[in-house]
């Protein structure tokens, strides 16, 4: 989690910082084989140098980016969890609970789906 310390320190709202830290710590603990990193000023996790999932902080939500394939695969579950989404990210409103099982499923999907991927992003 040390790699994310500076990013977290720049989140002004203490509740938003705590929520973001909770999610990043959960991913770190649940998926210890993923490499945490900061790229494009955002925390993300990679596997064999390929993008698995990224996060960003906005005024009203924590954004989760599992790439378009992850959004497409889980769009029904995302809506059922009460989140809205775009083609590239899921918005978890600050006042909403985090659906960690959905997050786990999205990460596992990307790990398996990108097992043979040799590029950072899907082509």
Give an account of the 3D structure.
With 123 residues, the chain is α+β, with helices and mostly antiparallel strands. It has a single domain (2-113), classed as Aspartate Aminotransferase, domain 1 (Alpha-Beta Complex). The protein contains 4 helices and 6 strands, in the order H-H-E-E-E-E-H-E-E-H. It has helices spanning 5-9, 14-30, 67-80, 100-113, and strands at 35-39, 42-47, 50-57, 61-65, 84-85, 90-93. A hairpin with a 3-residue loop joins strand 3 and strand 4. It holds the Pfam family DUF1801. This is Iron chaperone. Residues 16-111 form the YdhG-like domain.
Overall geometric form = globular
Helix amount:
40-55%
Average per-residue pLDDT, rounded, comes to 97
Largest sheet: 6 strands, antiparallel
* Number of helices, where a helix is a run of at least 4 consecutive DSSP H or I residues: 4
SSE string, helices as H and strands as E: HHEEEEHEEH
For the CA atoms, what is the radius of gyration? 14 Å
For the record, the count of structural domains works out to: 1
Give the spatial strand order of the biggest sheet: 1-2-3-4-6-5
| CATH structural architecture | Alpha-Beta Complex
Report the structural category.
Answer: alpha+beta
CATH topology: Aspartate Aminotransferase, domain 1
Oligomer: single chain
Specify the CATH class: Alpha Beta
């Amino acid at each position: 989690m040390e790699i994310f310390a500076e990013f977290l320190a720049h989140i002004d709202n203490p509740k938003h910082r705590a929520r973001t830290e909770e999610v990043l710590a959960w991913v770190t603990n649940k998926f210890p084989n993923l490499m945490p990193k900061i790229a494009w000023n955002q925390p993300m996790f990679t596997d064999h140098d390929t993008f698995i999932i990224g996060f960003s902080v906005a005024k009203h939500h924590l954004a989760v980016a599992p790439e378009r394939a992850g959004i497409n695969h889980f769009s029904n579950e995302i809506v059922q969890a009460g989140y809205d989404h775009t083609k590239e990210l899921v918005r978890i409103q600050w006042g909403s609970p985090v659906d960690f099982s959905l997050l786990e499923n999205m990460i596992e999907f990307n790990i398996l789906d990108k097992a043979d991927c040799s590029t950072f992003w899907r082509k």
